[in-house]
UniProtKB/TrEMBL annotation:
Xref: Gene3D superfamilies: 3.30.450.180, lambda repressor-like DNA-binding domains
Organism lineage: Bacteria, Pseudomonadati, Pseudomonadota, Alphaproteobacteria, Acetobacterales
Protein name: Helix-turn-helix domain-containing protein
Signal peptide (residue range): none
Domain HTH cro/C1-type: 12-66
InterPro entries: Cro/C1-type_HTH, Lambda_DNA-bd_dom_sf, MLTR_LBD
PROSITE patterns, A to Z: HTH_CROC1
Species, as recorded: Muricoccus vinaceus
Amino acid sequence: MSTRAAPIGDHLRAWRQRRRMSQMDLALEAEISTRHLSCLETGRAMPSRGMVLRLAEQLEVPLRERNLWLAAAGYAPAYPERPIGDPAMAPARAAVEAVLAAHAPNPALAVDRHWNLVSANATVAALIRGADAALLAPPVNVLRLVLHPGGLAPRVGDLGTLKGHLLSRLARQATVSGDAALAELLRELRAYPAPPGGAEEPEALALPFRLRVGEDEMSFLTTTMVFGTAHEVALSELTVETFFPLDDATREALRRL
């Protein structure tokens, strides 16, 4: 049985509703009439290529989804969808590797849109040593590795707080992106055990957490970097997670690692 791709109007309406915007709100932002927007959503009018991109920009639609919009409207994709391992992506990979290496001896890693590990510096390998082999088999999902009882969870201080922060962040990503894989990952991680105090909290810019490594109790502050001006789909979906030591004991332990 064949399936028909959703028309552009369906994409537009779904994303407008996901952003909780009325037709009037979006029409004002895009500087078009509410009537014209209604016609686009119902299929009584077809948008130009520029209009597709303008509306996608106002709705903060991810680049991967913008290509789907363009295809639904009968246009060619605007953003290359090459995997990060493609030879053409070598300069981008080199830039990411340089960032990770420069952060050593502090831990740093890069993840894709589904939180699968793309790359990490050598310190990360030392921190995750001892986790279940199944969790370390590619593709390594970083959230699963951190929160699973067979991963880092038994060694994480304030696990409930960390879990609440990570799930809050993942829930927002799943809602904003409409990605079914993220929604499924969220359901899985919510089922993992955690101490009391694990309520999902509003997302913070940075989060302190503690991790036991051997005889050392390390304290970190985590921060996140994204490539906000990227025009490659894979690069736009890449996130670099960096960790900074919060005390001298952690700095010394990282130097030993």
